[in-house]
Write a structure and sequence with these properties.
315 residues, alpha+beta, Butyryl-CoA Dehydrogenase, subunit A, domain 2, 4-stranded mixed β-sheet, 4-stranded antiparallel β-sheet, globular
Length: 315
C-alpha cells in the first residue's frame, strides 16, 4: 500500500535519522520503507509499484543523508530481494519487504573487474559439511545487515552459488571501511575464514544465469537517484553565479530533462513488461548528464557525492 503522504513521511523520518550517528541512520530509517510501499514490487510487480520504487529513490536523493540510504535500499531490493524471490525464499522475502530484516549482498572482490571468472572466494563440500572461504571487497549495507547473501565460486560444480548467512556465524568477519561519499550506505568488506555452514543455507539460485539482468537493473535504478541528486545541484543558487557556470546550468537542464523523459518511459515499460525489457544500453542512458556534472570543478568540489555516479560516465 502506497502512503498518500509519502513525501512527508520521508522528510519526517529522515530528520529523525539524523539524530543518530551516520552509520546508524540506515537501520533507523529502514522500517519506513514498509510505510512507503517501497518494496511492494517484489511481491506484486506492476507499473504502479515500480514507479513508486523509483519515485522514492529519486526523492530521497534530494537530501544529503537520504542519498546513501537510498543507495543501500536500492541494492537490497534489486539484488537481495530479487534473489530471494527467484529462490522461492518466501519467508525471508516477506521479512525484507515488511522491514523486519536488513539484507546485505556481496559478490565483488578486489581485482575481480566485474567478471565472475575472477572470483577467488570458494565453497567446498564434504558430505554434509559446506565450507566457505575468501574475502569480499564490497558488501552492500554490511554494517547494518542482519543477514548476508554471498556469491562464491563452486569449482566442483563449475557454478557460482549464493548462500544466505547470519551475521554472527563463527569465522565470519565484517570489516567496515570509510567511503568519502554516501556514508549512510554503510558498505563493508567481508572475510569468510573457513566457515562451516549447513547445506540449507544455500539458495536455489544460479547466479551466473541472472548476473547480467540484476546488474543492469541495479545501474538502471541508479539513474533515478542521479536525477534526484541533480535536482539538488540545480536548486543550489550559490553555485551558479559566475557566467561560465550559468552556461553549464543550461546544458545540465537540457541533459536532465532528456534523461528524465527517458526514465519515465522506461520505468513504465519495466513495470508493465518486467525487468527483462532492459538492455545493456540502459546502463549508460545518463552518461551525458553525469559527464556534464563531473566536468565542472566547482560542482565536484561542492558535491563530492558525485563520485558515486562516476561509473555511469563510461570513463
Amino acid at each position: 500500500m502506497i502512503a498518500t503522504k509519502w513525501k512527508e513521511i520521508i522528510d519526517s523520518d529522515l530528520k529523525k535519522s539524523k539524530e543518530y550517528d551516520v552509520w546508524e541512520r540506515f537501520k533507523v530509517f529502514f522500517p519506513t520503507f514498509n510505510k512507503l510501499g517501497f518494496f511492494d514490487h517484489l511481491l506484486d510487480w506492476n507499473q504502479e509499484n515500480i514507479e513508486q520504487f523509483h519515485r522514492v529513490l529519486r526523492y530521497m536523493a534530494l537530501d544529503s543523508a537520504g542519498l546513501g540510504i537510498a543507495v543501500s535500499a536500492m541494492a537490497m531490493a534489486n539484488l537481495c530481494g530479487n534473489i530471494l524471490k527467484f529462490s522461492n525464499r518466501t519467508n525471508e522475502l516477506n521479512d525484507l519487504v515488511s522491514g523486519r530484516t536488513i539484507y546485505s549482498f556481496a559478490v565483488s572482490e578486489k581485482g575481480w573487474m566485474g567478471r565472475l571468472k575472477n572470483i577467488q572466494s570458494t565453497v567446498k563440500r564434504n558430505g554434509n559439511k559446506v565450507i566457505l572461504s575468501g574475502k569480499k571487497g564490497y558488501a552492500t549495507t554490511a554494517r547494518s545487515a542482519d543477514k548476508f547473501i554471498v556469491v562464491l565460486r563452486d569449482d566442483e560444480n563449475r557454478n557460482f552459488c549464493a548462500f544466505l548467512l547470519d551475521f554472527d556465524i563463527v569465522g565470519f568477519k565484517i570489516l567496515p571501511y570509510d567511503m568519502n561519499f554516501a556514508k549512510e550506505a554503510t558498505h563493508a568488506e567481508l572475510e569468510l575464514n573457513n566457515i562451516e555452514i549447513d547445506p540449507s543455507c544455500e539458495l536455489d539460485f544460479n547466479y551466473r544465469n541472472h548476473a547480467k539482468i540484476l546488474r543492469t537493473l541495479e545501474i538502471f535504478s541508479l539513474h533515478s537517484i542521479l536525477l534526484g541528486f541533480c535536482e539538488r545541484i540545480l536548486s543550489d543558487q550559490d553555485i551558479f553565479v559566475s557566467s561560465n557556470v550559468v552556461s553549464e546550468k543550461e546544458k545540465l537542464i537540457s541533459c536532465f530533462n532528456e534523461l528524465d523523459e527517458v526514465m519515465r518511459t522506461k520505468i513504465a515499460a519495466v513495470g508493465n513488461l518486467g525487468m527483462e525489457t532492459l538492455t545493456v544500453s540502459d546502463m549508460s542512458i545518463g552518461k551525458e548528464l553525469i559527464n556534464q556534472l563531473i566536468a565542472s570543478p566547482v560542482i565536484m568540489e561542492k558535491f563530492p557525492d558525485l563520485k558515486l555516479f562516476q561509473m555511469l560516465s563510461g570513463s
